[in-house]
Specification:
It is a single-pass type II membrane protein. Belongs to the chondroitin N-acetylgalactosaminyltransferase family. It comes from Nezara viridula. It is found in: Golgi apparatus, Golgi stack membrane. Strands 1-2-3-4 form a four-stranded antiparallel sheet, with no helix packed on it. Strands 5-8 form a two-stranded antiparallel sheet. Strands 6-7 form a two-stranded antiparallel ribbon. The longest helix has 13 residues. The radius of gyration is 15 Å and the shape is globular. The protein has two domains: 33 residues, no CATH class; 86 residues, no CATH class. α1 crosses α3. Helices cover 27% and strands 21% of the residues. The N terminus is likely disordered. The chain starts with 6 loop residues before the first strand and ends with a helix. The chain contains four helices and eight strands. By secondary structure, the protein is α+β, with helices and mostly antiparallel strands.
Amino acid sequence: MKRINKLTNEGNASITGYNGGTLHSTAAGQSVDSRKAHFIGQAGRGNQEEFGLLSLEYDENFCMGGPGVIMSREVLARVAPHIRYCLKNLYTTHEDVELGRCVQKFAGVSCTWSYEVRKLV
């Protein structure tokens, strides 16, 4: 396996490499097919002060920037050609919200909710 990155989250997950289109999580002993569209992170909808001000629909979310995000190769391929459009059409000053909006618009997926992560592997 070719090692490209290591991401550790308190021992719960450790993504240690990429090989042939699959992200491998050594902590869980599972893998996620990166040829499918995945936008993985800690889902959020804004704090109470911002609720309703982020131009999100009732069922939309974004991956919070602090914990970081994982985008599959497929998501990157769908979003990359549209980055300039996304940068020219910002609704807020929150980069994590705008990234989520761009991914939703052009990749057709939103940030995984915690219950969805269990279904990925």
